[in-house]
Automatic annotation (TrEMBL):
Pfam families: Beta_helix, Head_binding
Bacteriophage P22 tailspike N-terminal domain residues: 4-110
Family matches, as SUPFAM superfamilies: Head-binding domain of phage P22 tailspike protein (SSF51327), Pectin lyase-like (SSF51126)
Gene3D superfamilies membership: Phage P22 tailspike-like, N-terminal domain, Single-stranded right-handed beta-helix, Pectin lyase-like
Name of the protein described by the UniProt record: Pectate lyase superfamily protein
Domain of life per record: Bacteria
Lineage, highest ranks first: Bacteria, Pseudomonadati, Pseudomonadota, Gammaproteobacteria, Enterobacterales
Native source organism of the sequence: Klebsiella oxytoca
Coiled coil: none
Residue intervals passing through the bilayer: none
InterPro entries in UniProt: Beta_helix, P22_tailspike_N, P22_tailspike_N_sf, PbH1, Pectin_lyas_fold, Pectin_lyase_fold/virulence
Length: 587
């Protein structure tokens, strides 16, 4: 071997970006004769590794680059040499050539260094980064210093992701200060952070209402694991909120927001009107998110949408607590109208100015086939779960075919579970409680008409199955349950305790004929129909509905002053008048 060794390395000093820059990670290095293509085996020259004892061992090509950007042999970082001048080509993990030097001996290292800096500093400089797998706003000039406006850099990163092979933008290093712009996330692009300590701050209120900070309008976009903090300046109205944290447009499909933390009152002393999420479109998902200080945590309209394992709290009960009016900016935790085949599961809705979960027809929406399960709703000013029709029931305005199951509802100011015109639905295995904490929270503002479970709007509230629910309320609670409507199945498996009144339909006919009540105990007053010379001194009548049978217990005290007569009493059994005759002897 000759005495001259040529070190195999890039002809520039390695450098990194502010984030863990990995130069052509998992790429390949080819070494060949000068002014030839070193990828061609015919042009390749011998390459050696130098061991710790200075011995040299010839190796095969190409040389592998590890995840840290260093050339390795058998996984170990080594010193590589050749015995002559050479050309070198560097390919990234995808087989794309990143660099080619035809003759290393003719390269001025400083010129190459400046060339690379210029290439990487261009608007499309990210395309030269092989194997990194993601973009960052810093690659496009973001400072992330809490003072500079990083909006333009974020926009450039989004644009680059929309046209390039790298679709992931990583924002996990901290928070980017932005003006009130809109970030429209294209199809397939993901923005991923490092938790609530990373993300975006919008300290200046939008100049006009209905502003969207993030918009998803395509297919397969993802926002994950970062925070969105914005300021409304106390502006807006419930009909035209000042801002939306994230809006899934009606054209959006298979888009997701996961692990986001949204605060609608950043550095604000007065809360304005906003939505954490506006969720429309098809097959979109909000999961594991936390939304605070937004008028509504999420508003929903669309098909096959999912709201999962999230927490919605606008702070009304804890931060205001006065009598709620419609001018207040705090409304529902989850508010839905016109939703089809959607899943609302595992969410916690607390301290909201209206209901924890509201689902309605909305006068112009048909809600059907939805599952509301395993949610927790407590300390909301209005109801825990509120479903029903606004306006007149029609084929385009209805709330039907729901499954409402296994929810935990506690100490909401109004009725815990409310079904107003909801029909053809199954209400099962829900746990409903009113505890002494209710009195502490609401005091003199307690509702005088509240109940554990209530079915209202008799004309539309029909054909529901009520089974396996546990309702335990205070003895001072006005109603334990209130059932209205027809065609319902009221299962004996419901457990009901407490309440001043248990209102299970208003008439015997509704209990015994127009609904299937598996267990109920009621009273009636027996009456004398025929006979003379008789006096009904006292009477009691009780009936028990159990498993489709009606058992009657009648007690009469009658005095007679004339000869023997027939005494008849009438009872209703599933709509049939039954007449029973007893002989009363002259006294």
């Amino acid at each position: 071997m000759t005495d001259t060794n040529y070190l195999v390395s890039t002809p520039v000093t390695p450098f990194s970006t502010p984030r863990s820059f990995k130069s052509v990670a998992h790429g390949k290095i080819y070494i060949g004769s000068p002014d030839t293509d070193p990828v061609n085996p015919a042009n390749q020259i011998p390459v050696y590794v130098v061991n710790e004892d200075s011995s040299e061992v010839r190796i095969s090509q190409p040389i592998t680059i590890n995840a840290g950007g260093f050339p390795v042999y058998n996984g170990q970082i080594m010193k590589f040499i050749t015995k002559q001048n050479f050309s070198m080509a560097v390919y990234d993990a995808y087989g794309v050539q990143q660099f080619y030097w035809p003759d290393i001996s003719k390269i001025d290292p400083s010129s190459v260094f400046n060339l690379l800096l210029n290439m990487l500093g261009a608007d499309d400089g990210a395309k030269y980064i092989g194997g990194l797998g993601f973009l960052t706003p810093e690659m496009f000039g973001a400072k992330r210093d809490g003072v500079s406006d990083d909006s333009e850099a974020v926009q450039l990163a989004i644009y680059r992701a929309s046209i390039g092979p790298t679709k992931i933008i990583w924002v996990g290093g901290g928070k980017y200060l932005c003006s009130p712009v809109n970030f429209n996330i294209p199809s397939g692009v993901s923005i991923i952070g490092g938790g609530a300590g990373s993300g975006f701050i919008f300290p200046t209120p939008p100049s006009s209402a209905m502003h969207e900070f993030f918009t998803l309008a395509g297919n397969g976009s993802l926002l994950k694991d970062f925070s969105i903090q914005f300021n409304t300046g106390g502006l807006g109205s419930i009909g035209a909120v000042q801002a939306y944290g994230v809006w899934f447009k009606d054209t959006a499909t298979n888009c997701r927001a996961e692990g986001l933390t949204i605060d609608g009152k950043y550095s604000d002393t007065v809360m304005g009107f906003s939505n954490g999420f506006r969720l429309t479109g098809q097959d979109n998902t909000v999961r594991n998110c936390i939304v605070t200080h937004c008028s509504m945590g999420v508003t929903v309209r669309g098909t096959r949408l999912s709201i999962l394992d999230s927490h919605f709290d606008n702070g009304y009960t804890t931060e205001d607590g006065t009598v709620w009016t419609s001018s207040k900016p705090q409304w529902d935790g989850i508010a839905c109208e016109g939703i089809l085949d959607c899943l609302i599961s595992g969410n916690t809705c607390t301290n909201n100015g209206q209901s924890g979960i509201y689902i309605g027809g909305g006068g112009a929406g048909y809600s059907s086939g939805n599952i509301i399960t395993n949610n927790r709703c407590f300390h909301n000013w209005n109801r825990g779960i509120d479903t029903g029709i606004s306006g007149t029931q029609s084929t385009t305005n209805d709330v039907t075919n729901f499954t409402i199951s296994d929810n935990h509802l506690r100490d909401n100011r109004e009725t815990q579970l409310w079904l107003y015109g909801t029909n053809n639905s199954r209400i099962s295995n829900n746990s409903v409680f009113e505890t002494s904490e209710y009195n502490t929270l609401f005091g003199t503002q307690a509702s005088a008409t509240r109940a554990g479970i209530a079915l209202g709007l008799s004309s539309a509230c029909v054909n529901n199955v009520i089974e396996g629910n546990t309702v335990i309320v205070q003895s001072t609670t006005p109603y334990s349950v209130v059932y209205n409507g027809t065609g319902h199945k009221i299962s004996a498996s419901n457990r009901i305790l407490g309440g001043q009144t248990t209102y299970i339909f208003g008439t015997d006919a509704l209990r015994l004929y127009f609904n299937n009540v598996e267990f109920y105990q009621g009273t009636f007053s027996p009456q004398l129909i025929v006979g003379s010379g008789l006096t009904l001194s006292s009477s009691t009548g009780r009936y028990t509905i159990k498993s489709g049978r009606v058992n009657f217990d009648i007690s009469l005290t009658i005095t007679a002053s004339s000869p023997t007569v027939s005494v008849n009493h009438r009872i209703y059994s599933r709509g049939i008048i039954c007449i029973s005759t007893r002989q009363i002897l002259q006294r």
